[in-house]
Amino acid sequence: MRAGEYRRIRVLERKREAEDTESIYFEDPLCSAASPGQFVMVWLPGIDEFPMSLSRIGGVSSITALRKGKGTEALLTAEDISIRGPFGNGFSPSAGKKVLIAGGIGMASLLPLVAEGDHVFLGARSAEYLPFVDEIAGRCAHLRTATDDGSMGFKGNVVDLFISARPEGHVYSCGPMGMLKTLHEHKIKAEASLESYMKCAIGICDSCTINGFIVCREGPVVRDLDRIFG
Amino acid sequence: MLGVELCGIRLDSPLISASGILDERAESMLRLLEAGASAVTTKSIGSGERKGNDNPVIAETECGLLNGMGLPNPGIDAFAREMEIMRNRRPDGVIIGSIFASEADGFAALARRMEDYGSSAIELNLSCPNARGFGDEVGSDPDTVLEITREVKRVTDIPVFVKLTPNVRSIVDLAKACEEGGADGIAAINTVRGMKIDVESFQPILSCRIGGMSGPAIKPIGIRCVYEITGEVDLPVIGIGGVLCGNDVVEYIMAGASAVGVGSGIHYRGLKIFEDIKREMLEFLERKELRLDDIVGIAHRR
Questions:
Q1: Residue B30 and residue A212: Cβ atoms within 8 Å?
Q2: Which domain holds residue A54?
Q3: Which residues of chain B have a CB within 8 Å of the CB of A206?
Q4: How many angstroms separate the CA atoms of B167 and B145, rounded?
Q5: Is B7 noted as a catalytic residue in this protein?
Q6: Each residue of A128-158: pLDDT tens digit?
Q7: What is the extent of the structural domain holding B175?
Q8: Cβ-defined contact of B25 to A209 (cutoff 8 Å)
Q9: What is the pLDDT of residue B262?
Q10: Catalytic residue selected from B7, B63, B128, B208
């Protein structure tokens, strides 16, 4: 089986992660061997095909979607889905402690990295939109949250929360472009997983390219934010 | 060693990047030039923005890629930005502006704009197989090809290449129409109509169902078309279809091509394909103790 070929996958289990946010679990040998940060193309015949990061990688893997259109709506109610992948380059391994900075659903691609001793900074508009909170807290002691309305943790921006604490460690991030741009403006050295509209997902069609960086093939993780915002 | 001349344009190698691959944004086209493409063909640009077909638009097969992109592009107005960046960053870069329309006037208007933007040449997309009302739906009839070519030639001063479809009974008839219409050259071939069905879900994979094959599967078809065209028509031909290695380029040149387009090969070998192929070609020429000129169209004389 090659990554470029579609597999028909049975949805084994669903889990609510936050408001409008759900994971679906499935078994797929290629995904079991994926690296954190890699993504699959999820195809719902007759509806759409779109990229999703793997939120859990193992004998049973998962993807996690925020409901925001007919594609994700169909994904979260499907009994079977077709996937190809995993594609792209994930996060680089780190021997030491990691610092993870996530905006909302961006936490999905960082979740496979979370280990004891790591620091996780997780932001969302309000408490009910913070995904994976119990799971992260169960794996590491240093989870700090930021919400726009102050309903859980720091009131304000997750980047400001990180800057106020500034723990040691290799920084990994995923979230809206605005958040990544803020990290870059503060000259924070961070790897980041990028989100971009994708068509071919195999590095030829130029629809996902940002500033000459081919997100589907060379990313989705960029090692240096200068490559995107420089 | 590998330099060629194409309609008065000096190219430092025969390796042109084919239309449709990493060529919608200036930053990507700059990377193609940096990677060693001697010229870049742009994404096919139409009069207005087009989203293209819904996903999926690509299917990998055991022998090549099947695509049904459906001519997504920003439109000729917005494309000014990309061409301006190209002019500023690489004033020496050779850009072939690919355009598509449904009739002669539309092609002529787009060609004028591409010339104004600083294109070195124009490529008329008369061969895309996956967009309703465009491409090979327009370009399969020799009379229409003649009319469009003639009208574009009337309004532009830069070389005009016509990219032809192999999905016809006689590609030579189309090539003769290009010649009669005053074309400066021909690009052949565009993708070959194909289809793939996902047996697990019983679904055609491409949202447009039928798309175009590229890659290794179509190289023998491309070689045959270039051979047939150059046997009958006295125009330079850019050979396109399944160029992955140095020997593929050599084969196209032996069939009569003056240059080649590299497209899906970028998927198979990455952007380094341009430098890899140049090295492989040099190794071939050295081993055979030949120059590139010695082998152009040599298959016609055997």
A1: yes
A2: 7-87
A3: 21-25, 28, 43
A4: 14
A5: no
A6: 999 999 999 999 889 999 999 999 999 999 9
A7: 4-301
A8: yes
A9: 98
A10: B128
Looking at the complex, report in whole angstroms how far the Cα of residue A52 sits from the nearest Cα belonging to chain B.
14
Q: Please compute Rg for chain A using Cα positions.
A: 17
Per the CB < 8 A criterion, the answer to whether A81 and A11 are in contact is: yes
Domain count within chain B: 1
Residue A105 lies in a domain: yes
A116 and A152 in a single domain? The answer is yes
- The count of domains in chain A is 2
Structure tokens at B209: 């169902």
Q: pLDDT, tens digit, for every residue of B93-150?
A: 999 999 999 999 999 999 999 999 999 999 999 999 999 999 999 999 999 999 999 9
- From A87, A117, A135, the end of a domain falls on A87
Percent of chain B with pLDDT over 70: 100
- Could you tell me if A140 and A182 lie in one domain? yes
Interface residues on A facing B, Cβ-Cβ cutoff 8 A: 2, 4-8, 41, 43, 45-46, 48-50, 80, 82, 84, 199-207, 209, 211-212, 214
Q: In the listed set A87, A113, A141, which residue is the last one of a domain according to the structure?
A: A87
Chain B's closest residue to A42, CA to CA, is B56
Whether A103 maps to a domain, the answer reads yes
In this complex, how many residue pairs, one in chain A and one in chain B, have their CB atoms less than 8 Å apart?
A: 87
Candidate from A199, A203, A206 with C-beta closest to B55:
A199
* pLDDT reported for residue A2: 85
Q: What is the CATH number of the domain that holds B175?
A: 3.20.20.70
Read off the pLDDT of residues B179-191 as tens digits, 9 standing for 90 and up. Answer: 999 999 999 999 9
- Rounded to whole angstroms, the Cα distance separating A147 from B275 reads 50
pLDDT reported for residue B180 = 98
Nearest chain B residue (CA) to A8 = B200
pLDDT over 80 at B268, yes or no: yes
A31 belongs to a structural domain: yes
Tell me what pLDDT residue A217 has. Answer: 96
- Average pLDDT for A152-172: 96
> What does the pLDDT average to over B174-203?
97
User: How far is A218 from A215, CA to CA, in rounded Å?
Assistant: 6
Q: What tens digit of pLDDT does each residue of B57-94 get?
A: 999 999 999 999 999 999 999 999 999 999 999 999 99
How many Å lie between the alpha carbon of A78 and the closest alpha carbon of chain B? 13
For all residues of chain B together, what is the average pLDDT? 97
What residues contact A135, with CB distance under 8 A and at least 6 apart? A111, A114
Among B24, B15, B16, B18, smallest CA distance to B214 is for B18
The beta strands (E) that lie in chain A are given as: 7-10, 13-18, 21-26, 39-44, 48-56, 61-66, 80-87, 98-103, 119-124, 142-147, 154-155, 170-174, 190-193, 221-222
Answer whether residue A138 is part of any domain.
Answer: yes
B214 at interface of A, judged by CB pairs closer than 8 A: no
Residue A1 has pLDDT above 90, yes or no: no
CATH of the domain at A176: 3.40.50.80
For residues A75 and A47, what is the distance between their CA atoms, to the nearest angstrom?
10
CATH of the domain at A67: 2.40.30.10
Sequence-ordered list of residues with C-beta below 8 angstroms from that of A219, at least 6 positions apart, any chain: A88, A89, A193, A194, A196, A213
